[in-house]
């Protein structure tokens, strides 16, 4: 029992709650029965709630010359005590602490969606060694270790499934509502939860390199205090303190009423104004985490509000970044499309080339099995592969491979291949026994929600721009499909920087979204950088202000709409705070309200500001197109 009591006082939140409850009770007793006690019970509230405020104000004033709202509160508390208004001083202390507690709770709720990621990190791992299992601390897991994951367990590292089948809850990483089936060869991520069967996996990324650790690192850098508009409010607070002292002194000299002067100090406190911005920004950050969006810089939302151009990289951003088989076109009447695919897949089964893997993947999707092994296989760097499949010699690769083997392509086949090339596809030519037999086109797959995103951006008066290193054909084809009018192709990293500078020098702010190492300089140079966190490189993520954890560009309209909503909320908060302060000051100078009522009015403003900011936690973007 004693240990539980000690643990409560070590918990700052619980300690604050207990102090507020005891102090509130003391204030009530002071109001109704204070005259029955030799010492006013209000002193309990002053000691528990008031003294911490005074200490914090003195420390800030002495160590940093930080003139903040608590300076005014401290002066008001001391002045109320000196004139014998113990109950007023007690109520001021309690209400101020309640306001501070509500602020902390709002911020805590806003960050809860982010910080819960830290709790997902398992403390131990089950490693398979020498045919047996061994439980080790998760920090001791190394790349290459074979881990066994049982049903219900959280995966400790990124890796690849070696054996077993299961379903994994990946919602924390990808936002998918349903578990994803996993089997041998599939990738799994740290922080996700194994649902049904057990499986063995090989760790590929551990510790700080794992997906969960990277998210946690992003979380810790999310700081609303960096916003310029927050610093502006802090500077205003200093001037308000100076103005409050001046008005309070003048009120005393004109009226001779010390009670009015103390009331002026109470209502003049700029707490609501100081709370207006950080609570809105943190609530906005909390909202975005529910959509898999992490904000690394607090002022990113403020900057995003005035962006006029949104520049997209193509591969991995507007597309999935992995080539997929589009068409299988035979030209030999004796070979069908299915036969052509089977021959090509068997020829590529030992290849490590991404295009070869795409052909194998297409075969597996269609037939549900692995292609048969070739009788002979040879890599031809820069051209393709050659293989012997069921006694037939197969060549598959680029046009140079066929030319080097004196194999000609018919005019009709060349025209069909050119059509695919103009649409941004890659063509793999296939020859069997020295004769051209057909070709396979492969292209990057467009993300399904890309066209809707582009239409939504245009509806928000944000102009989309395609900025890609791909050739003009591929860039123009993608841009035409999704509706982007401004296209800049064949852009190396240096050219991307030039284009961003050109747009921004014209007076328009640019937001860049990309995923690769080559996008990192552009992400850093742009006014706001957004990285694709799921498939993006570590360098791109580190260079960005905002990260789309599960690569869902469909949430971009929500992000941009929320940025504008956050700024509008800040403006409403500031206007509300200034209006209430102005009205209360006039009432205090005229003697209509006393310190007790002044404290109530002042803190009503703070609570209203906090409640208005908290509404952002549940805000949702309404699609307009």
Would you summarize the structure shown here?
The chain is of the alpha+beta class and 625 residues long. The chain is built from 23 helices and 22 strands. β20, α20 and β21 form a beta-alpha-beta unit.
Helical coverage, percent range: 40-55%
Query: What gap, in angstroms, lies between the N and C termini?
Result: 61 Å
Strand order of the largest sheet: 10-22-21-20-11-18-19
Q: What is the makeup of the main sheet?
A: 7 strands, mixed
Number of strands: 22
| Poorly predicted runs of 5 or more residues | 1-9
Percentage of residues in DSSP E strands: 15-25%
Average pLDDT for all residues: 81
Which term fits the overall shape?
Answer: elongated
CA radius of gyration is: 33 Å
Number of helices: 23
Structural class: alpha+beta
Which helices and strands appear, and what pairs or packs with what?
Elements: H1 2-10, H2 12-33, H3 42-64, H4 69-82, H5 86-115, E1 124-129, E2 132-137, E3 146-149, E4 158-163, E5 166-169, H6 171-174, E6 180-182, E7 187-188, E8 193-194, E9 199-205, H7 211-220, H8 228-255, H9 258-268, H10 271-289, E10 293-295, H11 300-304, E11 307-312, H12 314-318, E12 319-330, H13 337-348, H14 354-367, E13 376-380, E14 384-389, E15 392-397, H15 399-404, H16 411-422, E16 426-432, E17 435-446, H17 450-459, E18 463-467, H18 472-482, E19 486-488, H19 493-505, E20 509-514, H20 520-525, E21 528-532, H21 538-543, E22 546-548, H22 556-589, H23 595-614
Parallel strand pairs: 11-18, 11-20, 18-19, 20-21, 21-22
Antiparallel strand pairs: 1-2, 3-9, 4-7, 4-9, 5-6, 5-8, 10-22, 12-17, 13-14, 14-15, 15-16, 16-17
């Amino acid at each position: 029992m004693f240990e539980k009591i000690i643990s409560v006082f070590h918990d700052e939140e619980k300690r604050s709650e207990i102090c507020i409850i005891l102090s509130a009770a003391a204030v009530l007793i002071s109001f109704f029965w204070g005259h029955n006690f030799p010492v006013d019970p209000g002193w309990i509230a002053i000691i528990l709630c008031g003294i911490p405020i005074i200490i914090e104000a003195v420390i800030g004033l002495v160590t940093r010359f930080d003139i903040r709202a608590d300076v005014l509160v401290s002066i008001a508390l001391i002045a109320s005590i000196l004139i014998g208004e113990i109950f007023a001083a007690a109520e001021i202390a309690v209400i101020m602490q309640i306001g501070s507690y509500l602020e902390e709770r709002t911020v805590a709720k806003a960050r809860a969606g982010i910080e819960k990621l830290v709790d997902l990190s398992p403390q131990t791992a089950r490693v398979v060694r020498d045919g047996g299992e061994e439980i080790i601390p998760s920090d001791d897991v190394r790349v290459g270790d074979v881990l066994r994951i049982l049903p219900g367990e959280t995966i400790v590292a990124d890796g690849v499934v070696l054996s077993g089948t299961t379903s994994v809850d990946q919602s924390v990483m990808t936002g998918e509502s349903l578990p994803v089936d996993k089997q041998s060869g599939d990738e799994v991520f740290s922080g996700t939860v194994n649902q049904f069967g057990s499986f063995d996996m090989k760790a590929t990324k551990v510790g700080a390199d794992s997906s969960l650790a990277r998210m946690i690192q992003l979380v810790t850098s999310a700081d609303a205090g960096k916003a310029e508009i927050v610093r502006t409010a802090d500077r205003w607070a200093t001037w308000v303190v100076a103005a409050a002292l001046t008005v309070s002194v003048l009120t005393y000299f004109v009226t001779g009423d010390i009670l009015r002067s103390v009331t002026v100090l109470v209502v003049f406190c700029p707490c609501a104004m100081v709370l207006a911005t950080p609570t809105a920004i943190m609530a906005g950050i909390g909202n975005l985490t529910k959509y898999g969006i992490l904000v690394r810089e607090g002022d990113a939302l403020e900057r995003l509000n005035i962006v006029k151009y949104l520049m997209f990289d193509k591969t991995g951003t507007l597309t999935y970044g992995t080539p997929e088989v589009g068409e299988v076109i035979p030209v030999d009447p004796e070979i069908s499309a299915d036969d052509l695919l089977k021959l090509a897949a068997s020829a590529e089964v030992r290849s490590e080339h991404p295009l070869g893997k795409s052909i194998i993947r297409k075969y597996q999707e269609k037939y549900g099995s692995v292609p048969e092994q070739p009788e002979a296989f040879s890599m031809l760097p820069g051209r393709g592969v050659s293989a012997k499949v069921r006694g037939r010699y197969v060549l598959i690769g680029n046009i140079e491979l066929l030319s080097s083997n004196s194999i000609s392509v018919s005019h009709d086949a060349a025209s069909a291949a050119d059509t695919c090339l103009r649409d941004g596809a890659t063509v793999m030519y296939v020859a069997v026994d020295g004769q051209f037999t057909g070709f396979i086109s492969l292209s990057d797959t467009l993300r399904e929600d890309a066209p809707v995103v582009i239409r939504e951006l245009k509806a928000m008066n944000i102009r989309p721009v395609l900025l890609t290193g791909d050739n003009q054909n591929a860039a123009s084809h993608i841009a035409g499909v999704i509706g982007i009018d401004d296209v800049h192709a064949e852009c190396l990293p240096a050219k991307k920087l030039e284009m961003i500078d050109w747009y921004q020098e014209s007076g328009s702010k640019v937001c860049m979204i990309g995923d690769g190492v080559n996008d990192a300089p552009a992400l850093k140079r742009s006014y706001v950088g957004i990285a694709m966190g799921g498939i993006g490189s570590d360098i791109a993520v580190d260079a960005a202000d905002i990260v789309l954890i599960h690569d869902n560009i469909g949430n971009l309209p929500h992000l941009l709409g929320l940025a504008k909503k956050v700024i509008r909320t800040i403006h409403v908060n500031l206007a509300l705070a200034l209006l209430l302060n102005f009205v209360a000051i006039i009432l205090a100078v005229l003697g209509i309200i006393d310190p007790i009522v002044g404290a109530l009015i002042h803190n009503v403003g703070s609570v209203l500001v906090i409640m208005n900011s908290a509404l952002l936690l549940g805000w949702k973007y309404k699609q307009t197109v």
